[in-house]
Every structure is written in structure tokens, then in C-alpha cells.
Design goal:
151 residues, alpha+beta, 4-stranded antiparallel sheet, 3-stranded antiparallel sheet, globular, disordered N terminus
Length: 151
């Protein structure tokens, strides 16, 4: 496997993880599930849901600028996000606070899914740890017109 494909794969996994609500909540009890190909997977139960949230942790040998470039590249986002039909930035409140529209193309009989994400990027100046806090934007935070044939 080439270094580029490995980095793309890990960044794709990271992006999937970032779409999980409350990913970085400090009061969440994450349970280690498995480690495969250098990626540690953690899960936790979501109250009132049959679904579980997950996060993946991996060490990637690259620069912070390259990671930021991937996460901020809306034009190329659909090339590495699973079943992505549309991905675009719809508003920038600041360089570190943005709204994105994401649409996932699903097969019949299921309708496509879409979401408006509210993202806040933060980098600790001492440790250089980069954190994206991503949540679904409520309609009062960012009203986005409902799309036809999309849930």
C-alpha cells in the first residue's frame, strides 16, 4: 500500500469519526473495541439509540498543514468520504468556525441523507494537538432549506 493511500485511508477514517456527535465529550466512557492496521477503535453507547458512537485513533506521519488541507478541501472531499454525493462549505464565521453541507448517496429503498455540520477547529499552542468539534447545526443556528428526496 502506498504512503498516499495509507494517509488518505486514515484521514478518511478520521473524517468518519468526526461526524459522530459529541466525539470529544470529556464525560463519555469510551470502551476500547479493537486495533487494526495501526488504528485503535473505541465505542460507547448512545442513550436511547441502537447505534454506537465511535472514534478512531491513529498516528499519521505527515505535517499539520497537510492534515488541515484535507479537512478543509471541500472540492476533493467526496473523493475520500464514503458514499459522498455532495460536500461544501456554506458559511465561514471565522477561519476556525464554519458550516458545511454533506449529502450521502444511499441505495434504494433508503433515501439519501444530509446534514449541516457546525465545525470549530482548535489547536493547542503548547502540544500542537488539533481538535475538530463537529456537531449537527440546529435549524436555529443555521437554517438550511430541506432538500427533495433527502432525509
Amino acid at each position: 500500500m502506498s504512503k498516499t493511500k495509507l494517509i488518505s485511508g486514515l484521514l478518511g477514517l478520521t473524517a468518519c469519526v468526526l461526524f459522530s456527535r459529541l466525539l470529544f465529550a470529556e464525560d463519555v466512557d469510551w470502551q476500547f473495541k479493537k486495533e487494526e492496521k495501526g488504528v485503535k477503535v473505541y465505542v460507547h453507547e448512545i442513550e436511547g439509540s441502537a447505534l454506537k458512537e465511535f472514534r478512531g485513533v491513529a498516528l499519521v506521519n505527515t505535517t499539520m498543514d497537510r492534515i488541515l488541507a484535507v479537512f478543509e478541501d471541500t472540492a476533493g472531499g467526496c473523493s475520500w468520504i464514503y458514499k459522498c454525493k455532495e460536500f461544501k462549505e456554506i458559511e465561514e464565521k471565522s477561519p476556525t468556525e464554519k458550516f458545511f453541507y454533506f449529502r450521502q448517496e444511499l441505495s434504494w429503498p433508503v433515501l439519501d441523507r444530509d446534514v449541516v455540520d457546525y465545525r470549530i477547529r482548535n489547536q493547542d499552542p503548547l502540544t500542537q494537538v488539533l481538535t475538530y468539534r463537529i456537531s449537527e447545526a440546529s435549524p436555529d443556528l443555521y437554517p438550511y432549506p430541506k432538500q427533495k428526496n433527502v432525509v
